[in-house]
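Hi support team,

I've been running sequence recovery on a batch of backbones for a student project. Most finish fine, but this one hangs at about 90% for roughly twenty minutes before it completes. I'm not sure whether the input is malformed or the queue is just slow. I've pasted the structure tokens below so you can try to reproduce it. Let me know if you need the job ID as well.

Thanks,
M.K.
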């Protein structure tokens, strides 16, 4: 039986000491220090941060802060990389645990994507395909898109990115998350036969040349372990148990889960959805458990439940001890550096996204 989260326990003495030491460093540095916390961080990390949000929003926030010199990104590695790409020359970006990676981002690397690009362009012809990379990717893939006239997208802006790609080229190559790509294609009215999956372990991605020529959207065979954990039967079970509830899920979920939900959107969208729901509402959420946890704590006038328990193990690697150690080694430990020309080319793809979202 799902339960609302309650965490009213005081921190144990050893945790209180960590909090005091972190708070003292923050007070001493003032505006020179920014601690950024992603929506999926556990409650006690978010409570110590200066800003919380999605990965790109946080990266833009820190880059726009001219007083900030030290930026500590409490999230996974590709998020800190994005902050480093956008950072001003005087800013240093660090991550409390450099081993906090992203399983989906690791499903596509520059070598396999470049190889796929060669095969695709051999079939479709040069200049026929627009590469679009999801924000959940390493800097090398963002640079690849910048180099080939493509764009980066977030889950919030996947629709505008895909619309742009299909307007400027015949096809879009979307990586690494096939489900965000397919759900976006469905929303834009693409037919199932116009979307194919590219398996990097198979010749031609497991497709025939005629399928590639017919396709409008070529989807990399990648996925998020957190969001593919949700299944259609979870939605049906919760609807039976809570018929009055509204169910909102992330677009990285599979298309059958998305089709059964009442609303679909990014982490920011989900947070706003709960914020704007009437008091006494029941909202069931299909995303990472720490965000659901915090939304339940922050909105006690509403019943906020999880669709199914799904934890991101990499986000969970960030804790108070690692945060404190990073703060005690500012400018030295766990620094995230994106070398040139990767930084410049990745910035091109990010800037194209910003142009699209401003239109």
């Amino acid at each position: 039986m799902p339960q609302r989260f309650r965490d009213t326990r005081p921190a144990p003495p050893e945790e209180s000491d960590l909090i005091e030491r972190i708070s003292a460093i923050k007070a001493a540095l003032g505006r020179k220090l920014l601690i950024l916390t992603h929506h999926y961080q556990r409650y006690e990390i978010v409570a110590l941060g200066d800003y919380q949000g999605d990965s790109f929003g946080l990266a833009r926030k820190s880059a726009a802060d001219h007083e900030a010199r030290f930026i500590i990104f409490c999230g996974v590695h590709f998020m800190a990389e994005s902050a480093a790409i956008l950072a001003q020359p005087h800013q240093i970006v660090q991550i409390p645990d450099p081993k906090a990676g992203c399983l989906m981002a690791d499903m596509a690397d520059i070598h396999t994507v470049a190889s796929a690009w060669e095969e695709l362009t051999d079939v479709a012809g040069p200049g026929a395909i627009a590469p679009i990379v999801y924000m959940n990717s390493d800097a090398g893939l963002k640079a690849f898109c910048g180099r080939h006239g493509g764009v980066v997208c977030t889950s919030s802006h996947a629709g505008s990115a895909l619309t742009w790609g299909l307007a400027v080229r015949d096809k879009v190559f979307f990586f690494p998350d096939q489900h965000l790509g397919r759900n976006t294609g469905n929303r834009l009215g693409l037919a199932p036969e116009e979307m194919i999956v590219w398996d990097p372990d198979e010749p031609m991605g497991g497709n025939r040349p005629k399928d590639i020529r017919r396709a409008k959207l070529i989807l990399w065979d990648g996925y998020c372990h957190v969001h593919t954990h949700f299944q259609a039967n979870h939605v049906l079970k919760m609807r039976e148990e809570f018929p009055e509830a509204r169910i909102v899920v992330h677009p990285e979920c599979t298309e059958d889960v998305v089709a059964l939900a009442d609303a679909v959107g990014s982490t920011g969208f989900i947070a706003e959805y709960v914020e704007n729901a009437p008091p006494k509402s029941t909202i069931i959420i299909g995303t990472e458990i720490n965000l659901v946890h915090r939304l339940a704590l922050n909105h006690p006038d509403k019943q906020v439940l999880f669709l199914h328990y799904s934890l991101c193990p990499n986000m969970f690697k960030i804790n108070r001890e690692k945060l404190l150690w990073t703060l005690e080694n500012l400018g030295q430990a766990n620094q995230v550096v994106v070398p040139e020309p990767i930084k410049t080319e990745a910035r091109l793809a990010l800037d194209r996204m910003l142009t699209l979202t401003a239109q």
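--
Follow-up from support: It reproduced on our side and the slowdown came from queue contention, not your input. Residues 1-9 have pLDDT under 50 and may be disordered. No action needed from you.
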